[in-house]
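Subject — a protein and its fold
Encoding — discrete vocabulary of local shapes:
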Amino acid sequence: MTDDERVPPTSVPVSAVPPASVPLRGSEHGSALGASFYETVGGRPTFEKLVHVFYEGVADDPVLRPMYPEEDLGPAEERLLLFLEQYWGGPGTYSEQRGHPRLRMRHAGFKVNPDARDRWLAHMRTAVDALDLPPLAEETLWDYLQRAAFAMVNTFEE
């Protein structure tokens, strides 16, 4: 290909391009080289609200509530908060306290069927909507949550 056949560079200034939703890292376990999704959407307060609104729905759900053995949903709320913070580029507290997430393994003892998945997603949809995120951030978060919910299904029994 000659220089004349190459596509000309875009005229969009670099400063107009939004940061990547997942940060680039200097090495496999290195620090982020740019803003993380976590930082872009508001950090801990955003994820605290997401998880709190989600668990408000779970508290009264007859299918999901029995999956949480603690009387108080506070410990579960904290675990999900720490997991989501770490996943989206925030502090690595989840792994420091609990090790590798191993989501499927941690949920294996519960009957996660399509009904449970759909209820989980309904409560999470309410929580995501409560954040009033910009459209791209909302779609990025929702896409992940949907994929995670479908991956947790471990039975088709009622």
The chain has one domain: 38-152.
